[in-house]
Design a protein that fits this description.
With about 350 residues, the chain is α/β, with parallel strands linked by helices. The protein has 2 domains: about 5-25 and about 265-340, Aspartate Aminotransferase, domain 1 (Alpha-Beta Complex), CATH 3.90.1150.10; about 45-265, Type I PLP-dependent aspartate aminotransferase-like (Major domain) (Aspartate Aminotransferase, domain 2), CATH 3.40.640. Helices cover about 35% and strands about 15% of the residues. It has 11 helices and 12 strands. Strand 11 and strand 12 (about 320-325) form a beta hairpin. The chain is globular. It starts with 12 loop residues before the first strand and ends with a helix.
Length: about 350
């Protein structure tokens, strides 16, 4: 892992991947070539389309899903919104208190159809699932402080009561191994640990769930034969999850394809081991127990400002200073951050 940071070139100690990830050299090069071909009017959309499909295949591998079950959209909220709009009137949704808005707001947006949203503390989520629950939605990793959800318990409870399970993997995909097929839907925005530009999201949609979904955003990209569907009078959608694709974000997708290849070459087990080791090294220096996450936070006074003065980029979330580690970070970064907070 010592050579991995050589794929990045940053002017700061970037401990802020939970806000946005930094592209490795192959991804930056791919994006630069595409932008240059666009600027010089030499770019071929067919080539960009092939890169988009390469992104689908590689992203599917990273989240443990068949490529045919992966749809590509723009954001977590956009894809969750499609699921929410397809729920029957009066459906009852269960979410954790204080979860990220993108996995909460889409269900509230259907209130005029009688859809209700109940929020409970995350540790109580599995116990709160009952026979009246139609869908459970939650983040696998909390974006503010990195707490890992009790995923197995939640999924087991939902299955026992026949409820759908929608997981937001935005703060998990790209640093920890996943098995998307455990869920009815697993959604992730790709601009964090997957190190793509903003504007690309992916989702595993199970075959059974897809039968219940309404393709509200269908256009040519969702068609069985996209090239011949641009002026079609009748809608003939792809028999795969591509039926829920929206118009492709070529540049974000081709960057994601290159970043995903780096992650696949390293292996997500190694990525998780690296990232969590750095987080827990930092936490140990502050006298905290291991968190086994790539995200942590501190409520130390003026932590954000003290880290910034040391050239370390973090962010504030929920009244605390959040730090997040990825492949371009080192043990020296973790120690530098701890020293900045501990020195008089």
């Amino acid at each position: 892992m010592d050579t991995i940071p050589d794929l990045w070139n940053t002017d700061t100690v970037w401990l802020n991947t939970a806000q946005y990830g930094i592209p490795p050299a192959p991804a930056h090069q791919a994006l630069t070539r595409a932008m240059q071909s666009w600027r010089t009017a030499t770019g071929d959309p067919a080539d960009w389309g092939r890169e988009t499909e390469q992104a689908r295949t590689r992203l599917a591998a990273l989240v443990g899903a068949p490529a045919n079950d992966l749809t590509l959209g723009t954001s977590t909220a956009q894809i969750a919104g499609t699921i929410a709009a397809s729920l029957p009137d009066g459906a009852r949704v269960l979410v954790p208190e204080g979860d990220f808005a993108s996995i909460v707001f889409p269900w509230h947006a259907q209130a005029d159809r009688g859809i209700t949203v109940r929020a409970v503390p995350l540790p109580d989520l599995a116990r709160a699932v009952d026979g009246d629950t139609d869908l459970v939605a939650f983040s696998l990793v909390h974006s503010a402080h990195g707490q890992l959800a009790p995923t197995q318990d939640i999924v087991a409870a939902a299955r026992a009561h026949g409820a759908l399970v929608v997981a937001d993997a935005t703060q998990a995909a790209g640093w920890t191994p996943l098995r998307a097929t455990d869920f009815d839907a697993l959604i992730a925005s790709a601009y964090k640990w997957l190190m793509a530009p903003r504007g690309l999201a992916l989702a595993y949609l199970s075959p059974d769930l897809r039968k219940k979904l309404r393709p509200n955003n269908a256009g040519p990209a969702a068609a069985r034969e996209a090239a011949s569907a641009m002026y079609a009078t009748e809608m003939d959608l792809a028999p795969t999850a591509r039926a829920f694709d929206i118009s492709p974000n070529w540049f974000a997708a081709l960057t994601a394809a290159a970043s995903a290849q780096v992650l696949l070459q390293v292996g997500l087990e190694r990525v998780r081991e690296h990232n969590t080791a750095l987080t827990d090294h930092f936490r140990a220096a502050l006298g905290q127990e291991p968190a086994h996450s790539a995200i942590t936070s501190t409520d130390m006074p003026e932590a954000f400002e003290r880290l910034a003065r040391a050239g370390i980029v973090t962010t504030r979330r929920g009244g605390r200073t959040r730090l997040s580690f990825h492949l371009y970070n080192t043990f020296d970064d973790a120690e530098r951050a701890a020293k900045a907070l501990l020195q008089p």
